[in-house]
């Protein structure tokens, strides 16, 4: 009960902060341009959002994160991180008087990565059980980055439409900037903040106190460094080195990070399989269920079979059972590594109890040979085997 109250409090607090951030950004947007310019900015800024979100949802398929938290991450990036970074940069301009070049190359990376990374750090402290490793950190950091880029792009694209610094503006000016920000470098903000996600992911998977502290800190410093390198190339020598920085630094770094993310996703199946097999040995589920739970294609096949055999209700039951089993598997993996959350016994028992309640209604795919029987049911006396 205490855990549920804590989760609800976290959601409410973040939602309130998001509302305040949305008000700030609404005022900024209304003051920054004419209605026509804002419409153009919003439409163009929205175009990359769905493809970017789809990429991170694909990474998140083995153990899908709660949709409510993913929406909060997007909202945090779009409203809270943008408004916080903007206020900090305005304060820097008024109190410190930084030059435009210094503000772009140094102040912006420091403030923007701090405001974006704060959401992932809050998850580490208040919703730690939702973070099972590096891939989860990457997904949440990416969602925050997408939200941030969306709002920032509205500002830049609206300004480009109105024309500035002697530029003619209009639709042509806005589209020209959209090509740079929405097509050539749409992953920029998610990429920068991904380093923080990796650091937080390391913090939840290690038993080393030093790594738990240094992981997020080093991740933040790397995010700032990557962001500063990109921004600095845009302002140094009037952007003469921007193309070289993009081709020889940003693209290779992004490809390395993308490869690492794909490797982490593939590794999740092996991790889940081993954890579920150990769960089966302890009596939490039957060994024959493991293949239908560990592989994404097998999960889909089992859901289609359940729907064909028993309709929509049977499919929902299968989906719910698979969800509980996957959550149990990743929780058990953290237990085996010695990095499980303090309330892992309660969490694990909740998953086991819900699986036990769903199991009698499951319709598993039947073997092709008529001599074989349906998947056996875990005996009731084995369903509460302690860790």
Can I get a quick summary?
InterPro entries: PrsW. The chain crosses the membrane at residues 7-31, 37-57, 69-90, 102-126, 138-163, 183-204, 211-230, 242-264. By secondary structure, this protein is mainly α.
Count of helical stretches: 13
Distance between the termini: 22 Å
Mean pLDDT: 88
**Fraction in helix:** over 70%
**Beta-strand content estimate:** under 5%
**Elements, N to C (H/E):** HHHHHHHHHHHHH
Given helix and strand content, the structural type is mainly alpha
Q: Oligomeric status of the shown chains?
A: single chain
What integer value in Å does the Rg equal? 24 Å
Total strand count, please? 0
Uncertain stretches: 379-386
What is the 3D shape? elongated
Biggest sheet statistics: none
**How many domains make up the 3D coordinates?**
2
Q: Could you explain how this protein is built, in words?
A:
By secondary structure, this protein is mainly alpha-helical. It has two domains: 2-240, no CATH class; 271-382, no CATH class. The chain has 13 helices and no strands. Helix 3 runs antiparallel to helix 6 (134-162) and helix 4 (67-95) runs antiparallel to helix 5. The model is unreliable at 379-386 (pLDDT under 50). The chain crosses the membrane at residues 7-31, 37-57, 69-90, 102-126, 138-163, 183-204, 211-230, 242-264. One of its GO terms (molecular function) is peptidase activity. It holds the Pfam family PrsW-protease.
Which features would summarize this protein structure in a list?
single chain; 387 residues; mainly alpha; 2 domains; 13 helices; disordered C terminus
